[in-house]
């Protein structure tokens, strides 16, 4: 046991993340990505993270709240990666799409789709589940990137919807079949379709 600044005796594991919540969230995110959500238990998660069950509850309150924050962390992390040199130096929407797709096809990144597909199944059977966030939060990110590349504002929403649907659908295919060449070819068709529309809108301006 250790003591806080007020002299209260607490489990040392509770103190470990007392002022390091971002680090705790990052660790919890990795745990969820590795183990999924179907049988997620706060008690088992806390044990794996090396903290007390009480500490995890103090920070996240419930399993649903933890999952919600994990999803936000995944989205924010990807958005931050869009600002990195790897993706930020591309010169066109087509290059950005290809770079983002390549990034998302890495096994470490594909874990988020496994979690997503689990949550979609849960949301479909639970009317009170905030299912729309599984889509809307990501549409916001995609629309912002499209407009940064001067994609017409009037079609950005439907284009973002198309991109998100294609990426998730093709990732489901890839995770199921492992046929990277075929799925990559399908994604390239997606890029070609989008660039054809983009060229047409630029010409009409």
Automatic annotation (TrEMBL):
Which InterPro entries does the record match to this protein? Homeodomain-like_sf (IPR009057), HTH-type_TetR-like_transc_reg (IPR050109), HTH_TetR (IPR001647)
Q: Does the keyword Oxidoreductase apply?
A: no
DNA-binding positions are 41-60
Record-linked Pfam families: TetR_N
Question: Per the record's keyword annotation, is Ribosomal protein included, yes or no?
Answer: no
- Keywords, sorted A to Z: DNA-binding, Transcription, Transcription regulation
HTH tetR-type domain residues: 18-78
What sections of the protein cross the membrane? none
User: What are the recorded GO MF terms, alphabetically?
Assistant: DNA-binding transcription factor activity; transcription cis-regulatory region binding
Q: Which PANTHER family match?
A: HTH-TYPE TRANSCRIPTIONAL REGULATOR BETI (PTHR30055:SF234), HTH-TYPE TRANSCRIPTIONAL REGULATOR RUTR (PTHR30055)
Name used for this protein in its record: TetR/AcrR family transcriptional regulator
